[in-house]
Batch of 4 targets.
Target 1
Amino acid sequence: MRETMTKMTEKADYLEGQTKRNNVVVDGIPETQNESWKETEDKVRFVITEKLHLDNSQMVIERAHRTGNPSGYSGKRPRPIVIKFLRYKDKMAVLSKAKDLKGTNIYVNDDYTEAVKQKRRELIPAMKAARERGDIAYIRFDRLIVHPASQKHGAGERT
């Protein structure tokens, strides 16, 4: 029974991940009171064009919406925006240009399931410790990748 439950949970996580495959989450885009989906999408398109320097005329955004409780809106920190692209390659184009947002308060990330987000949170202390040792460390999906500082280009170690 326990094994069946574990398999069902893994399958549900996999399916949830597949539904988020074409999504990104954008933090830091200012929010206005009673903002409509159209206004949210216009703000997203502005960031894609002006900040990421991408031609979004061919990008099909299925939906762009804020997450979280709108009644909790205080004006201090805008709610994140989930963007669902029609095509995976549009998502990847946005993620590949996200480094152009350095110096702004806008951040673009993959839209992960809760299980993956939790795993990533658990890996952060180990990543920080590796970086303090001078190693190159980063999290890819739900895995910690560490390249020892003495190693130039190699497979590195995975945790």
Note: Residues 114-132 form the longest helix (19 residues).
Target 2
Amino acid sequence: MRLVEITDDNRDEVCGLRVRPGQERFVASVAKSLEDAVTTPEGEPWYRAVYSGGEPVAFVMLSWNVPPGRPGILGPYFLWRLLVDGRHQGRGIGRAVLDEVVALVRADGGQELLTSHQPGDDGPGAFYRKYGFSPTGEIDHGEVVLRLGW
């Protein structure tokens, strides 16, 4: 597994990644995520395609080292999106991406990683909790905020 910059050469292929039917309410598409990155520069978006072998299998986007005090932005490090293509779910890719992201954030001096998710029994909350995230007690735009510290 490797994180790869999204360029004109791979953008269409990466935008073709899709979650399983019924999961769309829990994570925005890659195209929507890239649009959000452009329209929310104050979130300091950092995003990568996740490749296994020669094909994209996932997408990850963070707010990267956001200076304190920016209204509406959680951080400084916030896992904004993690989308594993439905054909590749259940293979440990999400965990591997989180391992890599946590290592990068730690190397950058970060002390914690935040994320959020839509409530729901069939959503990603259990995955994040199993990884080690814990609820902060906050709700952001209707989503449960989680924290992973080290």
Note: The chain has a mean pLDDT of 95.
Target 3
Amino acid sequence: MKMKKFIYLLPLLVVLFFQKENLKMTPSKEKQKTKVVDTIKNDTLKAAEKLEMYHKGAHASYYANKFNGRRTASGARFNNNDMTCAHRKLPFGTKLKVTGVKTKKVVYVTVTDRGPFVKTKHIDLSRKAFMAVAPKSYGGHIEVDLEIVKK
């Protein structure tokens, strides 16, 4: 009798296990709340921030959706809704101020990956960061100014 109950429960346990794994990959509401706090901190940081110009007129592109959930070079999981970027040489954890040359819009990102591996591109932004800096309904690549945020 106990074996029959176990046979019925086994598929349910397997489904619950895999749903738990999928939930880890999707951003939680708590994580989204911390992003709002981070943007508020970044706004208040403007007055006291020390910036070092790194590259004027850098060519920026964005990650494809197929990279969502994959590990980055730093070991963190990539999420296109985070404010992150990839750079060839800057150390992981470096905070960058990215300013669109045409739009003058500003976004703060953190280096979490290596790339881009195209010689004409200087930085790969997450999709959310790219769309925040790019002109409306624009895709592909844009020209940006990169500044390193010093503590």
Note: The CA atoms of residues 3 and 71 lie 40 Å apart.
Target 4
Amino acid sequence: MIAKLWMNSVLVRRLMGVLLMGALLIGGAVAMAPATALAGSCPAGKQGVDVRKPDTTPARDVTDTVISSIDVAKEPADIEGRQFRMRRLEVKPGGVVPWHSHDDRPAIIYIVKGEITEYASTCSVPIVHKAGDSTAERHGVAHWWKNTGKTTAVLISADLLHVNDADPHMM
């Protein structure tokens, strides 16, 4: 009886191992498969350098709250003159995050709620971001955002801001 239970447990473990390996292989194949466009990204063939000119629309109906920040010069990373910060932005319908550059300030944005449209210097068409999307903002990107939806959009932004920048709410 004990031998039978032991054999069954060995078989169950082997079966679980095979199933796990299969899931990993399938997941890896899906992750490596080419995609025509990811949600919230510039479509293929629409990318370029400075394909969209700066926009002068001022900030409107956007609330920018610094949630937390770290002086990274005091951390093991020792990045002098930088602050790693996290912000919550709420953009009301029709609200605008004005044109700004990420040439010297990388950021990652996560859309928590709603929908917001990005007008990037690197994409000739507007990019719609929906709840659950994230986007990396890197060197060479300047852009502005507008909430063209009917509900308030909520975004979480994490970036490396220069400590000497005068405005901690710089977009």
Note: The longest strand covers residues 82-101.
